[in-house]
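Margin note from the TA: students keep mixing up input and output lines. Inputs are the sequences; the output is the structure of the whole complex. Example:
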Amino acid sequence: MEAIERTFLLKVPSSTENLALIREFVGSIAQQSGMNAMDAGKLELAIDEACANVIEHAYGHDISKEVVIRARFDEETLRIDVEDTGNGFDPNAIKQEELEQLVNKRRTGGLGMRLMKTLMDEVHYEIEPGKKNELHMVKHLRKNKV
Amino acid sequence: MPSPFSVATDYEDNLSIIRLEGAVDAHTAPQFEAAVQAAIDAGHNKIIVDCEKMSYISSAGLGVFMCFIEEVRDDGGDIKICGLTPKVKQPFEILGFESLFDFCPDSAAAKNSFAESSAAPGGVV
């Protein structure tokens, strides 16, 4: 029998005020996919980080812009894509420095990406600056259900 | 519904106790940052951040701890983090905060920790 895929879409104005709404949306999908509360929390954090980056860096807090979150899951995999049309960036240029080095330099950059990469099974960017930037994230579900 | 964010500061002797409630994210972290800055501006560099009622924290909130830790330590103070639930503690652990910050079970333990380090030769390390 063919697996049934469920799809979800949320579009919100680019404001950090909407991060709570985004987390609720993601948390609800995580629950429907059968994730436990701990893993749902990890997913909420990863997507929050992705969307906060879009709101702050890609759109520079321009509330007239839109953050798009697409989610879909089947029995095995939950996929979430975050889309924007703002300033792209080179994800490879973000250095993964040790915490102590960041503190010494009084910098906090890169923490969000480190969290995303740790919390998700796959993180992949497609950047077309000014056109469309997409962040694809994957969480495998089967191991959650064992 | 998640509890709304709030931040409140109590001054006890030479300590500042900053109590966080609700979600600390990119929207609310500036209020947390302002509270830490206000404590430092008031001359309090021994700071306890009580996270007992904090339901969530993202890198924006974690960055606030990182922004101020060197400054308060250079001044003979410290920032101690207390009251973290296992779920909320996760991002701190992922980023390796335990190697840089003093975690205490609750605010009483954090106060004791400050008292002990003040009594020790050389003060706060």
